[in-house]
What does this fold into?
Amino acid sequence: MRSEWKGRAVFLIILIAIAYGAFVALIWKDAVLPKRETPLIQIASPFDGALVREGQELIVHSVAIGRGVVRIELWVDGIPLTATVNPHPQEGGFSATQRWKAEGCGRHILFVRACDEAGQVGTSPSLSITVVPEGKIAFATNRDGFYRIYTMFTDGSEQVAFASGKVKGREPSFASDGRLAFSSTSQDGTDDIWLMEADGSGLRKLTDDSADDHDPVWSPDGEAIAFSSDLSGRCQVYVMDKEGGERLKLTQGGTYAGQPTWSPDGLELAFTSERDGNWDIYKVRADGTGLVRLTDHPAKDWFPAWSPKGDKIAFVSNRGGTYQIYVMGADGSHQTKLTDFPSGAEQPDWSPDGSWIVFIAYTGHGKRFDAREIYLMPADGGYQLRLTDNACDDTEPTWYQGPGAAVSHELP
It folds into this structure.
């Protein structure tokens, strides 16, 4: 028994000696050997929150500080994509330019890592980059001293006038072949509907009367235009052919009806109407029959926009105190709030594939209407992306279709 205890004591002494030796070695290493610090690295560009269009190439510039960095790696959504090797790691400091082809609309997380000769790794702060769909957005703006139609890419870049010259216009609507219908105020002070070909040629009036004609919107097949007009007294919804021929009045009554939007099959239109002393969304068949009420709320519901898939309608309501973007089923069901801007949001319009919504919010540097700026968001809400930022009125956004125009016009 005594021999057994003696063996255990010897074993315990050996363990203590090993632990003590490791502790002394650790202290000696920290005191005598030079310390190697983790490489420092930072992304110089792009900035956090940057937008890039799908299919475009995002250029990432990064800088590592210190000697011994052998490579810089670019990571996207937790996956290493590219690595740039440093040919002279002992010279100190190393920068890299790496490229990522933006794929998959939505938010992505980017960061870079610097690896040194000792195997240590430094990681940069991460950036949130949002990929938006390829395409253009048209809108009306008064930034030139009068309202005219501009276009820009979906990331907010290249904001330019749709046509050169002094073409005054608002409420743009594009047919699938690029023809533009818009409203403009004539010399007599009334609004009329105008048409311009996709290449900027063929500018002509489609309506010319004493009424205010506005809110033009192309039918899905490009053969007709729905619009609002007070030709019969109170504003009502009308439809005319693509050349401005005979009008068909779709709505009746002595109360306002306007802001039409087509169903994607062209068989119905949704619109805003002030009936029963309240503003709500209705729909009607393209021949004026089959009126159906979609919203029935004490608040003001307006600005309907039918989704390209036909299953949803976006609209605006102040039922929460301020005007915000909502969405509902095409039958009026499941009315859901998408935005929550303190100053309000309006004028939704869907992307051609129905996955994004463009709209305006009152967040600009100007006052009242001059505070309207253009935003983009996924169709289910979640987050909003600002595309314009100024002290002017950027309003009435819609998805642009067709080539740009560079022909100079002036309205007669």
